[in-house]
Structures
1.
Amino acid sequence: MPDGSTAGTAAVEFVGIGKQFGRSGRPALDGIDLRIAPGEIVGIIGPSGAGKSTLARLINGLESPTSGHVAIDGKDQSGASEKELNKLRTGIGMIFQQFNLFNSRTVAGNVAFGLKVTGVSKADRQKRVTELLEFVGIADKADSRPAALSGGQKQRVGIARALATSPSILIADEATSALDPETTAETLRLLRRINEELGTTIVVITHEMDVIREICHSVAVLDKGTLVDRGGVYEVFSEPTSEVTSGLIKYAVAGVPERPVVVELNRRHPGRLVTIPVRDDPTPQVDITAAAARNHVSATVIHGGIAELAGRPFGALTFLLSGAEDGVAAVLDAVAGRPGVVVHEEPTDAELADGADLTEAEGAR
Ligand SMILES: Nc1ncnc2c1ncn2[C@@H]1O[C@H](COP(=O)(O)OP(=O)(O)OP(=O)(O)O)[C@@H](O)[C@H]1O
């Protein structure tokens, strides 16, 4: 699987990138070093204002860095003339959240537009447009106006238009953020097909973890203009090294219960609770059920969630241990301190009383 860390010429390479808008204030980007390998689908994720769009716009020269340089297919773009940048842009497609289609033109006219600008003959344009509309699955809409299409269909037109000049790189800037979940899934499947069948490198700008989970091979996490995590999707999210990354994965997978949930679980199921990570990992997993059996303790799953991350299982399961006190203590001893294991403290009387008020109040509503 392609990964930004592989050797050879990168499709995109950011070296020591800084970007400052205006004279003062926090830079939009600060010291970014990032390689994107050819054929990779890389997700760039991070909170609002992290610098994702700015980074994307540096790829096709819509912005220029204040410091550092960007190389495309090994070619440093510093000091490129407008003519050279225009040539570069024909090799880089871009799709947007708001589609950016011309409503005065038909679907076919929108897709043909870029080809006309680059001087492709009318006959060749028509042939290419037919091919592209078939590829994205909206050949029957060639003569419609964009306004008559659904959001998903509009995005397909956007994608066909972006592919018209056979770009080697496609940038998708929040391309599914305005779409419903089903249309999002279809659009992501189309992007994956583009990557697999055409070999296009895809840079996906998103704030949605699901998008990363669905199609990206690797991910770069940005926060306040700096790169805080970078690597394979599974590796980055199973071992987050920054708060932003931990926050993203926490929302995406119902894993380790927060304290109020632990208290509520314990109210309904008295006993010791322990959360065990579920990882697709070559190192041996924590086998709590074997430890429980050895010590004549029952271990029952009462909370948890497992999701797919880059096609691999990821999550956490919380077990209730019940049995003789020394048996439970032996099981906890066997698992405590193993990576990702959380042994939950039993709730105090005060915590139980607090929660009880809440539960009663909710029941009274
Ligand atoms: N043209 C501009 N002029 C001035 N400041 C800008 C400009 N473009 C971006 N910025 C600033 O740079 C920072 C990063 O913006 P950017 O749009 O790249 O973030 P983002 O991660 O894409 O955010 P969002 O998810 O909200 O789109 C922000 O503080 C933003 O206000």
2.
Amino acid sequence: MQLPESQVAVLEAASADEATSVDALAEATDLPPETVTGAVFELEDEGLVAVDERVDETIALTDEGREYAAEALPEVRLYEAALEAGADTDPVQMGQVIGASGLEGPQVDIALSNYARKGYGTIDSGEITADSDADPDADAEANALATLKGTGETPRDAVDVDADTLEQLDRRGLVGISETTVREVTLTERAVTELMAGIETAETVGQVTPELLTSGEWEDVEFADYNVEADAEQFEGGNVHILRQTAERVKDVLVGMGFQEMEGPHVDADFWINDCLFMPQDHPARTHWDRFALEEPTHIDDLPEDLVDRVERAHKEGVGEDGEGYHSPWDEDFARALALRGHTTSLSTRYLSGEQIGEIEPPARFFSVEKVYRNDTLDPTHLLEFFQIEGWVMAEDLSVRDLMGTFEEFYAQFGIEDIQFKPHYNPYTEPSFELFGTHPTTGELVEIGNSGIFREEMLEPLGVECDVMAWGLALERLLMLMYGFEDIRDIHGTLCDLELLRNTEVTY
Ligand SMILES: N[C@@H](Cc1ccccc1)C(=O)O
């Protein structure tokens, strides 16, 4: 019998009485594990070896886990500081205990969120108590960290920690659990017989080289078969972020629906962001808490004078015979102030006014998929910046049916078929609708956008004489519905879930 060199080496290193792992074979033969795995599959096909497969779990401390194993868990440090401060007799001011504990940055939150859960005491309206019966020496998580301290990747079976504690440590990101497939190989009777009869090494070539080609030798050599099922080393190459991929897909879909792309500044005058949208200057969203103002420069230089006059008049007197304005002061200097745009509707006002690319004739459709900035509180569905899918359609006669139909057509392209609408209020649209979709795993309704038909008070000063329906949709929320993640921070920023970003398949 003739076999390629690597298969012969594996047969000679394996045994008929005892199972040998691929790693052990790789070591014994001095071949890379991938080559051994390939050879093992070939030999299995030929009935020369039996392969036993199992999945092994190994456990290792993460960097954070190692840190706490060396120092103490943040909640234990908090407990010790609380005891020190006498919180076992009377509640103590939280700030004082945190200061004394030496905990800093994110560790403070970590300590607080585990403190009460583990019965170290209570935290209530800024005060902390310590339960004198609590015993840090009996803290299962701390003891598990101590057990794992100083070990590297350790087989699950060899780690003396109960399943619940391990799960908790995994959830806290203090241990990493990885799975590996272990293959063990035993020689079959046939292999033993063949080995006794003697197996010759067939010279096979695994790879065509320039030398083989130029010398013409390739014509005579025997090539090794490819095994497309063999395990290969895993490569983690660069990848376009799923948010960017989806933004591109949204653009393609909208272009396919006949839309043209708008562009414009991230920092803009409040005039374009708010005043042109008939947003009163005393609207709560226009206070300094909600906007990111610019320190330098603070104001825009150029605004079209005629337009400023018409917008001012609409704010003060309203539009049309029965028009009503806001009867509140309107200040041009306030309108000139610069800020990071809180919505991309500033692009729509620039385009609709004719200032950006000249007069636009109906029918026309425009969109953008761009960043906007808001001073929100960070939580699973809010960030300080996100991507807005802005869009509008200008035509002679538009109704709510056109608006709803457009959304249904748009979202259906992403497999989302159950959009719901809720009446809403915007100073610049009438009627207005919020859009909701259903989260694929939690089943909760998620707000995905805001829309409406622009009011006369907005369109008339801009010089638009026909109907315009418009919207702003959140790209990140669309992603949530498509891929089922629950926290926006899984895809953005320092806490992002690399597994999710690497493995999510974006389909066109
Ligand atoms: N500007 C709105 C979206 C919107 C745009 C155009 C019309 C109606 C609503 C928002 O950011 O929520």
